[in-house]
Amino acid sequence: MSGNEQKRTIPRFSDSQINNLAAWMSANLGSQLSLTDLAGLFKMSPRQFFRLFCNTFGNTPGHYVLYKRVCRAKELLSAGSSLGDTGRQSV
Questions:
Q1: Buried b / exposed e across 17-51, counting CB within 10 Å, b at 16+?
Q2: Has residue 8 got a pLDDT over 80?
Q3: How many C-beta atoms lie closer than 10 Å to residue 64's C-beta?
Q4: 50 pLDDT more than 80
Q5: How far is Cα 44 from Cα 30, in angstroms, rounded to an integer?
Q6: Is 1 exposed, middle or buried (0-12, 13-18, 19+ CB in 10 A)?
Q7: Are 64 and 25 in contact (CB under 8 A)?
Q8: How much is the pLDDT for 1?
Q9: Closest C-alpha among 30, 26, 54 to residue 39
Q10: Does residue 16 have a pLDDT over 90?
Q11: Is residue 42 within 8 Å of residue 50, measured between CB atoms?
Q12: Is the pLDDT of residue 44 over 90?
């Protein structure tokens, strides 16, 4: 690399932002989570939030939420919860 070329870093959430976001999303998996609401938590535009989220988690916010809901449903079913109860708690 020459002196004029710099290695560009990919913008990502900080560790504390990741922890706060993951905790908030886990606590609110049963709610409708819109991109606008999530972006508002960090005082960002939805576009900026989406880009940082994808860079950090390697997936879209929608896919991440779906994955977490499926994980929660698996846990509930493994713990003996009925299918109906699991459906009401996971979505």
A1: eeeebeeebeeebeeebebeebbeeeeeeeeebbe
A2: yes
A3: 19
A4: yes
A5: 23
A6: exposed
A7: yes
A8: 53
A9: 54
A10: yes
A11: no
A12: yes
